[in-house]
């Protein structure tokens, strides 16, 4: 009887660490090893470093904005000069700090994966400082810089367009641009919208946003008493912007840390194959989290890759080809390893 071994290395599904569980399926006997959220635990361990590095990068870019040049560029309606005054390219140097937590996350997960392989009888040596790991971390940080820089430029245009529509002064437009540095374009107009709601006394709309209970209470009190001032509005907008920036930082940390964890896990398999520990025909499988939060689009991905993929083939997903999850922010999918699948 041919034995197939499937190591299901789930990134986010809460599974308990167990001994080998034998499941009979037809003529094949599958040996499954389930983990206590190993990759997620490691990603969570290094995620805060990523979030802190992100917050520092945003603060550095905001502090370096040339306010005088920014106001002059806004007055001249010169978007190129507005971009120059903000200088989003400063994110490049600031976000280089992310290379370290990315590399450490990948290395730690790869090491844990190698230990699991060893428990299953596949003895290998995982090199956490392999050039592949270092290059991945560098490329991952560089890709984030490109995305964030593009987001800043688009967010600036969103604020300028909305500022003109709402008749905001140059000073207020400059303040708004400073506040949205680091926010994705869809969020860029949120602080300005909050300001408009406060000026119009729309308490329900303003307090319907992601604000702390204390801030919401303060807004209701001010509106009911008619004591909403421009200084108060500016303070609320700044507070809201900071909360959104922190939220994005957490999203980035969660997504990118899981990406690094999945890479480290996969690289351990690649290294094991090079060491002739794993069969060359081993396959990777896309694993979803089967709960009420699973989206219909992600539920289809395993069926799009029924025979799995080799170590060098990307998975076909509803968002396009990906070597491993996540395929979008906050994706909760993982990857599994099929050993000796004979494809």
Characterization of this structure:
Helix content is 58%, strand content 10%. It has 343 residues and is of the alpha+beta class. The chain has two domains: 1-36 and 279-343, no CATH class; 38-113 and 124-183 and 235-274, no CATH class. A five-stranded mixed beta sheet has the order 2-3-1-7-4, covered by helices on one side. Strands 5-6 form a two-stranded antiparallel ribbon. A hairpin with a 2-residue loop joins strand 2 (21-25) and strand 3. Helix 6 (131-166) packs antiparallel against helix 12 (230-274). The longest helix has 45 residues, at 230-274. The chain starts with a strand and ends with a strand.
How are the secondary structure elements laid out?
Elements: E1 3-7, E2 21-25, E3 28-33, H1 38-63, H2 67-75, H3 79-86, H4 91-94, H5 99-119, H6 131-166, H7 170-180, H8 185-188, H9 190-199, H10 203-207, H11 213-225, H12 230-274, E4 283-287, H13 296-299, H14 301-304, E5 315-317, E6 320-322, E7 334-339
Parallel strand pairs: 1-3
Antiparallel strand pairs: 1-7, 2-3, 4-7, 5-6
- How many domains make up the 3D coordinates? 2
Question: Can you count the helices?
Answer: 14
Radius of gyration: 24 Å
- pLDDT < 50 stretches: 1-36
How does the helix and strand content classify structurally?
A: alpha+beta
Total count of strands: 7
- Average residue-wise pLDDT: 84
The H/E string reads: EEEHHHHHHHHHHHHEHHEEE
What is the 3D shape?
elongated
Roughly what fraction of the amino acids lie in strands? 5-15%
Strand order, largest beta sheet: 2-3-1-7-4
Largest sheet: 5 strands, mixed
Helix content: 55-70%
Distance between the termini: 17 Å
